[in-house]
Amino acid sequence: MLLCGRGGDLSAKILFVYHYVALYREPVFCELVASDDMEVWVASDVVSNNDIRLVSKESPIYHSNRFLPLFNAWFKNRVLWQGGVVRALFSKRWDAVVFLGDPNFLTTWIGLLLLRFTKCKPYLWTHGFVMRGGVLQRRLKMLMYGLSDGVFLYGNNSRKELEALGVSPSKLHVIYNSLDYSAQKSFREYWDARDVVECRSRFFSEPVDFLLIFVGRLTFHKKLVMCLDAMAKLAMDDVKVNLLFVGDGEAREELEGAVGRLGLSGRVCFYGSCHEERELARLFHCSDVCVAPGEIGLTTMHALAYGVPCITHSNDMKQMPEFEAVISGRTGELFEDGNVEDLARAILTVKHRTKNFYSKDCIDVIEKFYTPEQQALRFREVLNG
Question: At 119, is the secondary structure helix, strand, or coil?
């Protein structure tokens, strides 16, 4: 049943309190703000404390008359005080407020406590226990979840873990995650077979060989050197593959050294950073499989949206929620965490099956769970009653 808004308005009034709006969040927030069955507002700062790409200050989110500005004060780049939160909480008579479920956000604790004395229902939007973390952090999260009326989660594994820890299933709502799927869909249909040949020829001397792609920051904890070790192992069996790194970061120098050491020169291309969706679509289109030997997150959704299967490790204790979308034999292949031989086996499996074997299931799982429309729908189903 639809929550009744205040003052005779039948639309539920919902406030989302965020630290800042990352660019990839724009589609789902626009979808929420445009809802015709509830009145959604967004409160956040317009700057961040890192290099993540934010929505433009010309974004409809900021110019929809449904935006409340906050002012972030960060301590050691981790603990956050949000100026203006209390004012935002009492600027209207909200039916529900959705906070980010980060125990390092001090004003979220204050908001949760204040709303206990009102009829407004507080909710949390969070990963749950991603990559586990320390005992203190886990206890703080459990206390925070207990102060809320509900918890919005990115994946089913987090839900199962919280249920096992005693959180009521009725409080846990899986909403998954999303990127700008409408843009991805249009670009997916833009490129053709000729673009594959032209694209690969720019990067590799043997462009017809099977092509792996990794998209994201080149960091040590992503275990990217495993890709190179697996390629070298396959080469010993006369299986030749190429690898395209799209991104930059602290591990690049080590990776470049490993390319020379393993005799993979000419087979590995360091493209550098790329943020243009049209170009990313072209790079995915010319690739056969996306490989992430460490944890895999939003990259999963990016690759699958273009019909590109993913390979990642199977240890869900060390994975991000989006990992759930990688289903062996359907949307990609899984290998034993840290096992180069098993990674090589997974690459060979996809090579033998070909990308077309996986593509329909890749796109289907995105359209069923991981679009802004689906994510907003799941929010509305809970917040509207």
Answer: coil
Phi, psi of 292 (to 5 degrees): -135, 90
Q: Would you state the structure tokens that stand for residue 311, as one six-digit string?
A: 């390979």
**pLDDT tens sequence across 56-100:** 988 989 887 899 999 999 999 999 999 999 999 999 999 999 999
Q: Do 376 and 362 belong to one domain?
A: no
- Cβ distance 242 to 265 under 8 Å? no
> Which tokens go with 338?
């840290």
Using the 8-state DSSP alphabet, how is residue 30 labeled?
A: H
163 is in which domain, residue-wise?
A: 6-178+370-383
pTM comes to 0.91
> DSSP string of 37-52?
SEEEEEEEESS-SSSP
In a domain, 174, yes or no: yes
> What single string gives the DSSP state of each residue in 154-218?
S-HHHHHHHHHTT--GGGEEE------HHHHHHHHTT--HHHHHHHHHHH-SSTTSEEEEEES--
Which residues have C-beta within 8 Å of that of residue 323, sequence separation ≥ 6? 155, 295, 296, 297, 300, 312, 316
Q: Among 376, 29, 361, which residue's Cα sits nearest to residue 175?
A: 376
- Residue 80 parent element (H or E): strand 79-83
**HEC string of 300-323?**
HHHHHHCCCCEEEECCHHHCCHHH
Q: Are residues 81 and 221 in the same domain?
A: no
318-357 pLDDT tens trace: 999 999 999 999 999 999 999 999 999 999 999 999 999 9
Query: What is the dihedral sign for C-alpha 352, 357, 363, 364?
Result: negative
Q: Can you say whether residue 8 is alpha, beta or left, with left for phi > 0 and alpha for psi between -120 and 50 degrees?
A: left
Q: Does any domain span residue 21?
A: yes
